[in-house]
Amino acid sequence: MLKKEEPQDPSVAFRYPRVITYKHSLGYQSKFAHALKMGRIIATKCPVDGRCTIPPRIVCPMHHVKQTEWVDQGQRGKLLSAFKINFPMFDSRTGDLKSWETPIVSIELEGGARMDGWCSETDTEKLKPGMVLEAVWRPAEERQGRVDDILYWKPV
Amino acid sequence: MARRVGIVAVAQTKFEEKPGVHIGELLYQASRDVMKQTGLEFKDDGTGIDCTVASGYDMMSGPGGAYMFLGYIVGAWQREDERVIEDGSMAVYYGAAQILSGHADVALVVGYSKETQIDKNLIECLSLDQIYQRRIGLDFVSSAALQAMRYTTKYGITPEQLAKVVVKARKNAKNNPYAYCCDSLSVQDVLRSTMLCDPIRVQEAKPTPVDGACALILANEEKAKKLTKKPVWITGVSSCYDHHELGYRDLADCDSLVTAASKAYKMAGITNPFKEFDVAEISEHYSYQEPLWYEGLGLCGKGQGGKLIDSGKTQMGGELPVNPSGGVLSGIPHCLAGMHSVVECALQLRGEAGDRQVKGAKKALAHGVDGPAGQLHCVITLEN
Q1: Taking 90 as the threshold, does the pLDDT of residue B46 lie above it?
Q2: Is the interface score ipTM higher than 0.90?
Q3: What is the CATH number of the domain that holds B58?
Q4: Looking at beta carbons, which residues of chain A come within 8 Å of B24?
């Protein structure tokens, strides 16, 4: 039994930092990564309706048929939507809190597939649906086959 | 059971290290296989598959949702899609419940595991109590070692008896084209292998990392009879959780398995499991678990598991062959073991188990386990 004079303990909390390293296999999507390294954006194409998808899929998400054809999506696309975060958010790449200076945009590429990325235009008032954006890449020697090999999209 | 649930198709991938394979490819291979066997797709008119049930740990897969790919892989977007974050046997249980309740007529049950993505022990460590157990480094292997020591000491189970479990598993795995490890081992080979976590030796633990996937289609009685000439009926199913905290239990026994088994047997009308079952697939992640689970499943008395191993009655050709597939000790990934047990039992009851077939099998026992030192057990009884 606790002695009467012992103080009431405040609630205790432990920090539990833990680093977890995953090794995600891209499998059939490796082709997409290799193309990024070369400064190209490619997408899988549905044999039923010709719709292109990014992320590339082994089967069409709509028609559930195997997709084997890859189509170049070009370097430009039309803006579908954009947003800017006005408070610090977690950087999903590192887990650190970060203030995001650049808006995130959703784009329909010339080849028809849709993908997301950052935009060089920080004034969201100037970002209008339908405007054309172009990919700006990391230098070739720095590319790792990841979607952030595209540094940002800039208005044309 | 008032209504019956039939297994109408089963599939599994080869179990091996697949470091270059995307999760979606694993799922595609297993799920397409069962969909092809039945000709079923997801349809709106009530003639196809109604829902999916999947099992697995999100933390093992890395993505926030282990099955974020499932919708497009099986063609099930805009459908009911349930998750069971436990062993795969629990997904079969949940799928059966969906059908028994009348909520669904046909369910696709899938599971995958990709141990090459992550250190399995790290994730299992995160499954333990964050304040008391993780701080001292307990994970599933070390919890198992504590249980092995307690069990073997209390009942006098010998290292040789446990080594025989491994020898049997690897010998059986030779007949299973899907098995990962099927090397010939002697009792001495096992006893001479490196100590992994005293008293468990390397050869007495589930090989890791291993990747693979399983899939089943479950249907209500009416549809099952139309979909296949060889339905396998789920006659009993139950699960039970014990205390998470190891110190709250006597690790020499497995009370939650006793409860799960007795409830499943009652549902199925099984009164003498050792005599009534023709084949069993039991999830033994470590050698000591097979005799201990024998006891919990009522295949022998308390402390008699070692003697049952010695008797040879659970070998192929014995009265009750256990793990003709080679079981988990031949390399079935975490989270998938219990679903794999059901798949293998279904193959046995359909007479489609190839070189590992138990002739004339009519009744089968499938078992899944999860949590530290067998905290959760799921028992599923099957008939043809």
Answers
A1: no
A2: no
A3: 3.40.47.10
A4: 27, 57-58
